[in-house]
Amino acid sequence: MSLRLRHLTTLEHLPRESIERLLDRAVMLRDACAHGTRKLDQLAGRTVLNLFFEPSTRTRTSFELAARRLGADVINFDIGLSSTSKGEELFDTLHTLEAMHLDAIVVRHKQSGTPEELVRHAMSGVSVINAGDGNRAHPTQGLLDVLTIRQHRPDFSKLVVTICGDVEHSRVARSDVHALTALGAKEIRLCGPASLMPAAGELPQCQRFEDFDQAIAGADAVIMLRLQKERMSDTELPDETAYFRHFGLDKRRLAMAAKGCLVMHPGPLNRGIEIASEVADGAQSRILEQVGNGVFVRMAVLSEMLAR
Ligand code: CP
After folding, report:
1. I want to staple 162 with a disulfide (CB 3.0 to 4.6 A). Which of 91, 102, 189, 288 is the partner?
2. Minimum-distance ligand 1 atom for the alpha carbon of 59
3. CA angle 221, 213, 165 (to 5 degrees)
4. What is the pLDDT of residues 147-199, one digit of tens each?
């Protein structure tokens, strides 16, 4: 039976072999395109639509680069200039764009579950890739995060990862936990203020901490999360100075982690709120490596789905 993906909406329940195959393919494509200096033609004649209903710098740009490096045509749908602003409904927009011929839709939406809705409504043969829905999933971010970790710490059975910050609003945290779980990480720790932690019972495979000093002790990788102010009301917003004191990553805290602990953040950064510049730009930071890996992981996903 072929394990080839048709859609990618979440990493939850995706088998380890599928994740490892995508990571291996990302590395193979990175080498084949000579880190982006050589264009491939695997997706010549294919069309990829970037349909982003929320802002994005990294994900949208890297999907575009990934598709172009594989030889595909790319449509960057501009919501602000589109008939969405005249009230056109999502599925009418979908069917209108499909009528122009598409092979894949890369979608970001504030509503959790929108990618699955598109899978149900999309024409047969059109692949849907989730570029982040609500607080639910950001599967390609999860893949690029585990690829970055694997490049430095290949044995996941010994790996202790701490994910700290606004976990409740974070689709990245959920996809990271699903990918790390599938790859057999030894220990996954979640840390944040009680008000920003997921409901009890969600992500039961993780240990929970409210004390960041305890959560980071001995960690091999620490993934800092952005405080997602746009998803909070004024009354929910924590005091930023107090937040940094309790949950911010600086040199003092990083020294409590395992030697050479990888410092990661999906971006965009709130410097001085969840992470100090001294570590974001420091020798242990893998943040820009994550960004670079994003292109190769997205090439791998597009290639697996669309290459003939
Ligand atoms: N990590 C991430 O999703 O960044 P963007 O919002 O810039 O795409």
Report:
1. 189
2. 8
3. 65
4. 999 999 999 999 999 999 999 999 999 999 999 999 999 999 999 999 999 99
DSSP code at position 226: -
Instruction: Return the sign of the alpha-carbon dihedral for residues 131, 133, 135, 139.
Output: negative
**How far does the centroid of ligand 1 lie from the alpha carbon of residue 1, in Å?**
34
Phi, psi of 302 (to 5 degrees): -65, -40
Q: Which atom of ligand 1 is nearest to the CA of 60?
A: 8
Structure tokens at 207: 């240990």
- From CA 67, how far away is CA 140, in angstroms rounded? 14
| Residues in the ligand 1 pocket, defined by CB under 6 Å | 56-59, 132, 141, 266-268
Q: What is the mean pLDDT of residues 110-138?
A: 96
Best residue among 50, 51, 53, 59 to mutate for probing ligand 1, ranked by most atoms within 8 Å of CB: 59
Backbone angles phi, psi at 77, to 5 degrees: -75, 120
Closest ligand 1 atom to the C-alpha of 61?
8
Q: What is the pTM of this model?
A: 0.96
pLDDT at 81: 87
Distance in angstroms (rounded) separating the CA atoms of residues 199 and 100: 43
Going by alpha carbons, the residue nearest to atom 6 of ligand 1 is 56
Give the DSSP H or E segment for 208. strand 207-209
Atom 1, ligand 1: residue with shortest CA distance: 266
Domains and CATH numbers, the chain: 16-136+291-306 (3.40.50.1370), 139-288 (3.40.50.1370)
Helices (H), the chain: 16-32, 58-69, 90-98, 114-121, 139-152, 171-182, 212-216, 240-247, 251-254, 277-280, 287-306
